[in-house]
Amino acid sequence: MKEETYQIIVAGAGAAGLSLVMHFIDAGINNDKQILVIDKSSKKENDRTWCFWETGKGLFEECVIQQWDHVSVYAPKFSKKLSLLPYRYKMIRGIDFYAYCFHKIKASKNITIVNEAIQEITTEGKVKTTEGVYNADLIFNSAISLTEKSSNYHQLLQHFKGWYIETEKDIFDSTTATLMDFTIDQHNECRFMYELPLTKRKALIEFTLFSETLLKDEEYEREIKAYIERKHPQLTYSITEKEFGIIPMTDQPFPSYNGSKIINIGTIGGATKASTGYTFQFIQKQCVAIVNCILNNQSFDKINHLKPSRFHFYDRVFLRVLREKKEPAHKVFTDLFQKLPDDLPFKFLAEETSIAEEIRVLSAFNKSVFAGAAIRQEITKKPIKPAQ
Questions:
Q1: Which residues touch 288 (CB under 8 Å, ≥6 apart)?
Q2: Has residue 387 got a pLDDT over 80?
Q3: What CATH number has the domain spanning 155-249?
Q4: pTM here?
Q5: Order of strands across the sheet that contains 70-75
Q6: Domain 2-64+91-149+251-305 indexed as CATH 3.50.50.60
């Protein structure tokens, strides 16, 4: 069995691992460091789609397949078209992201890619795969979670299935994305649809829900089909692709460190926002912090503190509200969009607000529901059993 040594290993070539390598290239870190990227998959399929909002142009602007400066939100007694400015809502397909990153990597020096299954990552700085052992002073891990799930924290799942569809006639408004459509049956959960138009004839229709457990595959399929039939009656369309994903929504801490040589990144490094599942842009912030630590020879402790602690508190309370179900989930979200200036909810969910702005945001929620949840959260410091 082969054994090789590098200065940096990136274990996992998903959004977190490849984003970090792109930030390394952008900062020139690979100019004097040998970097190894390990993932069992060669990433030849479109396995997921990332949507996010940002101001200006980001590092992955060339991968953006569509972007919108307006989105719509629908609920049983509310609808609104919102302007995101100064943000833009952007969409990146996984296959385009992977192709872009691998093209950049192959054109860069000192970066090696191996497609091998990772079996173990040790605190001594070893990554063991099916084909060999790789050593490094620094291992950035997004492949293997070293944190066991704890019942002492809120644990929800955001799970979704999407269809890319193509129609025979112009049907979609490609200037506006449907961010959340809560007009579907909620089943005492948080359920909504996305409709993300790529052109007047192509769109991604995605069914998303927050719950404790997954559905059967046919249930996701049935919801998407019914939504299309209701919103676009008698529409003739073909399904060109499908995608499915699961994102953990938990306030459980994910340590950035496992020993002095392993730094966890991405979801297992705490980059997923607990109350929404949003991850892509928080990964980028994490990558920027890591690059700064390397360039300035600083401790990686700072990546544990990328956001003020108050946002962790907001997330914990929000998860408790969703699980206690004292308020319909769609109303929790629509209150944000109905009662605040268009851009403020997006700024808040991106964790870029000031305390004064957060006071304004919090005032939009049902005060008795959120105050009660906050008090119970602080008294118990533990999650509640989900409401039935």
A1: 23
A2: no
A3: 3.30.9.10
A4: 0.93
A5: 78-83, 70-75, 176-181, 190-197, 202-211, 155-167, 237-250
A6: yes
- pLDDT of the residue at 365: 93
SS3 call for 279: coil
Give the per-residue pLDDT at 145: 84
The span from the CA of 346 to the CA of 349, in Å, is 5
Question: Could you tell me which residues are beta bridge partners of residue 166?
Answer: 202, 238
Burial class (CB in 10 A: 0-12, 13-18, 19+), 269: buried
- Please tell me the distance from the alpha carbon of residue 68 to that of residue 70, in angstroms, as a whole number: 5
Contact assessment for residue 204 and residue 98, using Cβ atoms and an 8 Å cutoff: no
Nearest by Cα to 204 from 157, 245, 247? 245
Helix (H) or strand (E) holding 15: helix 15-27
Domain residues of the chain, as ranges?
A: 2-64+91-149+251-305, 155-249, 309-380
Residue 158 in contact with residue 180, Cβ under 8 Å? no
- Buried b / exposed e along 39-72 (16+ C-beta atoms within 10 A): beeebeebbbbbbbbbeeebebeebbebbbbbbb
